[in-house]
TrEMBL record:
Keyword Ion transport: yes
Protein name listed in UniProt: Na+/H+ antiporter NhaD type
Sorted UniProt keywords: Antiport, Ion transport, Membrane, Signal, Sodium, Sodium transport, Transmembrane, Transmembrane helix, Transport
InterPro entries membership: Cit_transptr-like_dom, NhaD-like
NCBIfam families given in the database record: NhaD_1 (NF038006)
Membrane topology note: Multi-pass membrane protein
Organism: Photobacterium marinum
Protein family (similarity comment): Belongs to the NhaD Na(+)/H(+) (TC 2.A.62) antiporter family.
Source superkingdom: Bacteria
Record field: transmembrane: 31-49, 61-77, 218-237, 258-275, 281-299, 345-366, 378-401, 413-440, 452-470
Subcellular location: Membrane
Length: 475
């Protein structure tokens, strides 16, 4: 899940916004501009939610909304002689989004490269050859997502597992939708008990509010959060075999080495953040260079490799192998980059800029003020998770940290848990959900996820109750 944390170090963009809204001395939350911005953002999200029926790409409405909101902000701040503050906030948001964009671009490029080298085809073939039915595959991909996401990151883990599900599921839309929901819930839950699992956990850890080992107190609540909806949803997954024929899949040259380079890239990103405190995206871009140099190596050594394989095929009189060699094409890393899910990347831009604009207008600060001065902290922390499903957990968590409420360790762990898993309630509530809507376009949708929200909410409530019971002494 470190990827999401990295991915969202950019979303820390809102870090500046709430503060700047205070520095301006302007209360725009009850102004015409403020109300208009809220309406525009709400309408844009309604169009995003209706993507399945409108066949309108989700990036389009939020891109337009972001432009209109910031145009209005520009006019107001210019009239008040504080345009420099608005420009600084805008530039900060753009910088943070650039980190997100580049981070995701590298992750998606590696995933596309692994798909082109037929790794997912081979994994699908292995699963079919093992005789796994749809229900077993449902559990296998979910469990892998839960335990891999705290290390790799929820976004990358979700994309990898989704690619496998898409390969195995074929035209079975019902299975793909349920499996993707399961992956999103598992990936988000898996990141909640690790300081590196989510940007929200990282923020709390870096603030010194929860120690590294204290996060492990959230393991069982996180597991409950995943298992409750998974058990219920699995009852609706048939035990039938996938409608695929088992076949031998020959990996393309360099497939396994690309996996190794991807792991090395993640390690590089972690190292940049842990050792020199640079944004992890710098390490990810360095990792892209690994793939580019390896692509250069594959292209330059292709003729020699083909000749060697042809000699072996002729010696074995393997005509099929000779035919396969005739279709081999050089590896092109830039072609892999072009296959990134650009609709998802642009959607992130729109959301980041819209939320940044609303934060600059002061709305996040108002919400946080009400929650932690008028409500019981436990209920406020539970609402943080609900809000994170609608807006985004990063700006919400930042607003909480900015308020610096007097909370016990148990409450800091609670808000860490709810902010991390609350995004699973809606498909647009987390990076994993948004990315999978693009990766499984038309098969995993907002409304397809929404139908199972009551079940996911049951897991959300169960995890909170579990935390209150097991860690009650920390409150």
């Amino acid at each position: 899940m470190f990827v999401k944390q990295l991915v969202f170090s950019l979303t820390g963009l809102v870090a500046a916004s709430p503060v700047m809204a205070v520095e301006t001395g302007m209360d725009l939350t009850q102004s015409t501009v403020g109300y208009t911005a809220l309406v525009i953002f709400g309408l844009a999200y309604c169009l995003v939610m209706g993507e399945e029926y409108l066949q309108l790409r989700k990036s389009k409405p939020v891109l337009l909304a972001a432009g209109i909101i910031w145009l209005m902000i520009g006019f107001v701040f210019q009239q008040q002689g504080q345009i420099d503050l608005a420009k600084h906030a805008l530039e900060h948001n753009l910088l943070e989004y650039a980190e997100l964009l580049l981070f995701l671009l590298v992750a998606m490029t590696y995933i596309n490269a692994m798909e082109e080298r037929r790794l997912f085809d081979a994994l699908q073939s292995w699963m079919v050859s093992k005789g796994f039915n749809f229900r077993t595959l449902f559990w296998l991909t979910g469990i892998l997502s839960f335990f891999i996401s705290p290390i790799a990151d929820n976004l990358t883990t979700a994309l990898l597992m989704c690619a496998v599900v898409m390969k195995v599921g074929g035209d079975n839309t019902r299975f793909i939708n349920l499996a993707c929901i399961n992956i999103v819930v598992a990936a988000n839950a898996g990141g909640a008990f690790s300081p590196f699992g989510d940007i929200t956990t990282l923020m709390v850890w870096q603030a010194g509010l929860v120690s590294f080992l204290q996060f492990t107190d959230l393991f069982i609540p996180s597991l409950v959060n995943y298992l409750v909806p998974a058990v219920i949803m699995s009852l609706f997954v048939p035990k039938t075999q996938p409608n695929t024929v088992g076949e031998y899949i020959e990996l393309k040259r360099g497939a396994r080495r690309i996996v190794g380079l991807f792991i090395l890239t993640i390690m590089t990103a972690v190292a940049f953040h842990a050792w020199v405190h640079f944004p992890p995206v710098v390490g990810m871009m360095m990792g892209l260079a690994y793939l580019q140099f390896f692509s250069f190596f594959l292209v330059k050594t292709l003729p020699q490799s083909l000749e060697k394989k042809r000699a072996i095929a002729r010696a074995n009189k393997d005509e099929a192998a000779l035919d396969r060699l005739g279709s081999v094409v050089p590896f092109d890393v830039f072609k892999r980059i072009s296959h990134a899910e650009w609709d998802t990347l642009l959607f992130f831009y729109g959301v980041v800029m819209c939320v940044g604009g609303l934060s600059l207008l002061g709305y996040l600060g108002v919400v946080s003020e009400v929650m932690y001065t008028q409500w019981n902290p436990v209920w406020a922390n539970i609402m943080v998770g609900v809000l994170s499903a609608i807006v985004d957990n990063i700006p919400v968590m930042f607003a909480v940290l900015t308020m610096e409420p007097e909370l016990s360790l148990g409450n800091w762990l609670l808000v860490t848990l709810t902010a991390g898993v609350g995004g699973s309630l809606l498909s647009i509530g987390s990076a994993a959900g948004v990315a999978l809507m693009g990766a499984a376009h038309g098969k995993y949708t907002f409304f397809g996820h929404l139908k199972w929200m009551p079940v996911i909410a049951l897991g959300y409530v169960a995890s909170i109750v579990c935390h209150l019971y097991l860690n009650g002494s920390l409150f």
